[in-house]
Amino acid sequence: MDANWRPASIGTNILDESNGGKDDGDNLPSSGVVSLFDLLKFNAHKFVAIIASSATFHGMLKGIIPQGDPRALETSFLPPELVIQIPKTLNDLKRDCDESLLLSASDLIEDLISRSQLPGGGAITLADYFRFDQDLNKRIEHELKRKKFYQLRPEVAAFFDADDPFGQAVSLRFPGSVHDIREACRSFACDRYDATVFHSARALEATLHQFAGMLGIDYSINWGSYIEKIRKVIEGTAAKDQAERAKRDFVSRAATLLQTVQLSWRNESMHVGSQYSSGEAEEILQSTKAFMNGFTEGLQGLEAKGVTL
Questions:
Q1: d(CA 31, CA 150)
Q2: Which one of 3.40.50, 1.20.120, 2.60.40, 2.30.170 gives the CATH number of domain 157-304?
Q3: Residue 133 has pLDDT above 90, yes or no
Q4: pTM
């Protein structure tokens, strides 16, 4: 463990670009963060197809409006030449709505298709088709407005996707911290700075539990109790040879840094009313990364010398 650890800047390899940029093909998830490219690739042509099919259907209806009394729509039916064309257009429209997850619109289309397949065409009048056309457009508009997209700032977008934001070595060494490391980074990417600090603290807490376990320390209810017991381990470690001195120095530095974290921001982050700015959350996130990487490298250094805790 290097006693001169320094928090890295945001642009300094906190995330490996190779971890992001996953290509999920042509299918987008029903929820989650997607790139603008994937959003346009998936939704733009689908939306155009839906509008085109809807416009085709509307054009067919407009071309057969009976002249004279508007009430004639209630007693008029599709002309023979459209009895086959309109169901095909509706099936195409339903498929595009299904693929774009416009489920309410899709259900409406399915109901009309099912009704049209009944004997006598389900007795669907032109008025029914026009009412369907208006309702369909409203449903499509409503469902599109329900889909919300949160735009991540480009400089922090990679935080959201990385499987191992602090590096694979940290993830392998401290698997109990992986969830909170990812959540801390995702929270930062989404400008949720209090959540960033909260999950950073939890990631370190899981690391502390594992560290204490390596030293044979039983479960404790808080950081202070853990650190006190770690200090006792240090005091009871005789520095008889180089290996014992290396172990003692490592544990001592780790305990000091953990106590610094506890006093400087962890305790505060767990209390009601604590709020953190972008800069404060970034500093804490980077400090957490620096500590966990340094801690991992320190353990690897001890193991390379044949020293175990």
A1: 11
A2: 1.20.120
A3: yes
A4: 0.66
